């Protein structure tokens, strides 16, 4: 039987037209119905919105999601936005209290846990393809790509080296 995390990972890259994705999001109370996974083209004043992303969060479950419009997702961000087809491009898994989120506790990707340290992830995945550091040289983020998986793993750290959040993203945004 597939786990919650397996189901979530399987939806990366799927569109907001995917019935299984919609049902999963409704069942888990991330949205009320399929209309909640649509990108609004106009603001409340009828002005055109220049948006590529739809952000859905569940603070109580420690999760958030980014759905990206098809032009941007297909690396054609200079084309007009259609707003109809969106793709699940990023899943964020939060540690307790980060950006007002509760701790995600339904199993992290790759059997990670929030108590892991930077060296644990390097031991597990090898050298990252990206490292972000503060002005003081403190490591704040790392990113890994995988030959056998269509997404990247991004980890954000606090100044003390604790994991703040973990994100899976597709496509690989450089």
Q: Strand arrangement, largest sheet? A: 1-2-3-7-6-5-4
Distance between the termini: 34 Å
Mean pLDDT: 85
Number of domains: 1
What profile does the largest beta sheet have?
Answer: 7 strands, antiparallel
Radius of gyration: 17 Å
How many helices does DSSP assign? 4
Alpha-beta classification: alpha+beta
Overall, the morphology is globular
Question: Strand fraction band?
Answer: 25-35%
Sequence stretches where pLDDT stays below 50 over 5 or more residues: none
Q: What is the total tally of β strands?
A: 7
> What is the string of helix and strand elements?
HHEEHEHEEEE
Describe the structure.
The chain is an alpha+beta fold and 174 residues long. The chain has 4 helices and 7 strands. It has a 7-stranded antiparallel beta sheet. The protein starts with a helix and ends in a 5-residue tail after the last strand.
